[in-house]
Amino acid sequence: xxxxxxxxxxxxxLALAGTSMASAMADEKETINTNIQENEESIIDxxxxxxxxxxxxxxxxxxxASYINQPLVNxxxxxxxQVGTSKYDIRYNIANRGSNNFTWKIYTPGGSIWSSxxxxxxESKTYTAWADLDSIPVGEYKISxxxxxxxxxxxxxxxxxxx
Length: 163
Prior knowledge:
Largest sheet: 4 strands, antiparallel
CATH class of the largest domain: Mainly Beta
Radius of gyration: 26 Å
Order of helices and strands: HHEEEEEEEE
Distance between the termini: 74 Å
Keywords: Signal
Helix content: 25-40%
Strand order of the largest sheet: 1-8-3-6
Signal peptide: 1-26
Strand content: 35-45%
CATH architecture of the largest domain: Sandwich
CATH topology of the largest domain: Jelly Rolls
């Protein structure tokens, strides 16, 4: 009988200790995750300022799409982003970070070319589509960037609704 009570008390003690250990471990994991996130945000902030300058960060941070020093694979990049409303102006920036010229095109949800251009290495352009002057269809836009010679390259691209 004494052995059964002793075993039950030991099991209860271990269960309680294990519960508090799990709680302490969860708190420690949350602290580590928070520190990692703060460090990543710090790296993103400093990289962004290097590529776009500190003034543009306020509109890139909550943007529809943002690529920083994105490589071209076999001389090209294709992706898409969403525009959810035509009530607000749209601002976008594109920069050539590679060593080859490239041509870029943004296609509307209907498939027509909405905007396009060519950039030399080191060039950067910022554009604004005005909701009251330009046609800004709602839906999925596609972006295509192709280097002039099919060679390697890299770019920055950010797009945001100015609401």
